[in-house]
């Protein structure tokens, strides 16, 4: 079989480089195509330096040529990365916070997809790995972190630090917690505007005595409103993690969430997407997986958007129960659930390391300890 260069180019015109828009031939990304009998060599240059973008580009090219031109074609794809020459600006906004190394915003477009559950379990997994961890529960519509850490009746006390009165976070399972829920009545509907919420959160960060923290997780309210804009613009967020179920309506909102973080005025790196309630396995049928909300939706969305897929969490009764009794499932020892959360947490840490390496050395966001965590892959 002799392949024609024209056929290959025509096939490549049907795909684009992740995140670059336009078809890869028209944008000039495809630099050269050579054919020898049933062999094809494609040289392509992309601007996105992430491993996923490279891998995705390669896979798309292989798949497209196999599907549209010749299924047995022997294809070599040479992907070159030509990142923009301008040095990356440090996207960290606001003042660096002494003692707090990384701030990770946990967000979801849609409500009720398990953002707080994921935040709580990420925190516990990070703590088990040896990191110093804090959670700032910023979900003004329904702060649930105090319940998940069994501290809903607690109230933070003031401590004197160098002559200044500071709020001491409540500690549970080795995780320091401050929640907007500690300052509002449980049945009080909180109608706050963005700047007010951002101010309250600023106080909970800057006027609190967090001590040394490797990861401060912020449990954001659901949605993409002005509250998010205010928070993102005023706090030095290292990166954002998006939680979604595989359901179409949740994915549409998750996509808006990713777009919000990536827009120019916000520019917070998206560390990746976590798929929650990915499938249901009944106790009595351990080999069955029911894809109640659809299959691989969040994974496919991550691929489409060129962001990392951080992992999937099943829909399991004990996750809900452990959240309700204030003992996050990740506290379990060597169970499939605690292992699943551990693996996702390692991916998050890896992405933070990657992200910090990609920024100038001046930023105040270096990870200082990798204790208990698998060494990052270079
Ligand atoms: N993987 C899971 N398996 C079973 N139940 C889950 C799972 N994830 C979350 N839940 C349950 O779903 C409900 C909603 O979860 P959660 O409060 O974490 O969502 P959320 O996205 O933070 O909600 P909100 O929009 O109110 O902030 C809770 O009762 C929680 O226990």
From TrEMBL:
Domain MIP18 family-like: 5-71
List of residues binding ATP: 109-116
Residue stretches in coiled coil: none
GO molecular function, one term: ATP binding
KW S-adenosyl-L-methionine (keyword) present: no
InterPro entries (alphabetical): FSCA_dom_sf, MIP18-like, Mrp-like_CS, Mrp/NBP35_ATP-bd, NUBPL-like, P-loop_NTPase, YlxH/NBP35
Keyword terms, alphabetized: ATP-binding, Hydrolase, Iron, Iron-sulfur, Metal-binding, Nucleotide-binding
Function, as annotated: Binds and transfers iron-sulfur (Fe-S) clusters to target apoproteins. Can hydrolyze ATP.
Quaternary structure and interacting proteins, as annotated: Homodimer.
Family membership: In the N-terminal section; belongs to the MIP18 family.
Protein name: Iron-sulfur cluster carrier protein
Organism from which the protein derives: Gaetbulibacter aquiaggeris
């Amino acid at each position: 079989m002799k392949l024609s260069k024209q056929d290959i180019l025509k096939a490549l015109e049907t795909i684009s480089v992740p995140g670059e828009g336009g078809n890869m031939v028209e944008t000039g990304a495809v630099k050269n195509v050579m054919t020898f009998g049933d062999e094809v060599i494609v040289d392509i240059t992309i601007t996105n330096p992430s491993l996923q973008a490279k891998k995705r580009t390669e896979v798309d090219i292989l798949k497209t040529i196999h599907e549209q031109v010749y299924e047995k074609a022997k294809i070599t794809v040479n992907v070159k990365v030509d990142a923009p020459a301008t040095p990356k600006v440090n996207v960290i906004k606001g003042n660096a916070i002494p003692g707090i190394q990384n701030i990770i915003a946990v967000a979801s477009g849609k409500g009720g997809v398990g953002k707080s559950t994921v935040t709580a379990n990420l925190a516990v997994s990070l703590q088990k790995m040896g990191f110093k961890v804090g959670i700032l529960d910023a979900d003004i519509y329904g702060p649930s972190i105090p319940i998940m850490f069994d501290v809903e009746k607690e109230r933070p006390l003031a401590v004197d630090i160098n002559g200044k009165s500071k709020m001491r976070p409540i500690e549970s399972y080795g995780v320091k917690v401050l929640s907007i829920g500690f300052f509002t009545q449980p049945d009080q509907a909180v109608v706050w505007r963005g700047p007010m919420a951002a101010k309250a959160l600023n106080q909970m960060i800057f006027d609190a005595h967090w001590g040394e923290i490797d990861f401060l997780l912020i449990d954001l309210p659901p949605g993409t409103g002005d509250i998010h804009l205010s928070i993102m613009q005023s706090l030095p967020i290292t990166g954002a993690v998006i939680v979604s179920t595989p359901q179409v309506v949740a994915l549409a909102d998750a996509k808006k969430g990713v777009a919000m973080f990536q827009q120019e005025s916000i520019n917070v790196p998206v560390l990746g997407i976590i798929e929650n309630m990915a499938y249901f396995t009944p106790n009595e049928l351990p080999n069955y997986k029911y894809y109640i909300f659809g299959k691989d939706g969040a994974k496919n969305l991550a691929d489409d958007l060129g962001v990392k897929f951080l992992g999937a969490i099943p829909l399991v009764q004990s996750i809900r129960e452990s959240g309700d009794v204030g003992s996050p499932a990740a506290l379990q020892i060597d169970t499939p659930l605690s292992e699943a959360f551990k693996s996702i947490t390692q991916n998050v840490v890896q992405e933070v390391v990657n992200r910090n390496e990609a920024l100038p050395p001046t930023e105040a966001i270096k990870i200082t300890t990798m204790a208990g965590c698998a060494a990052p892959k270079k």
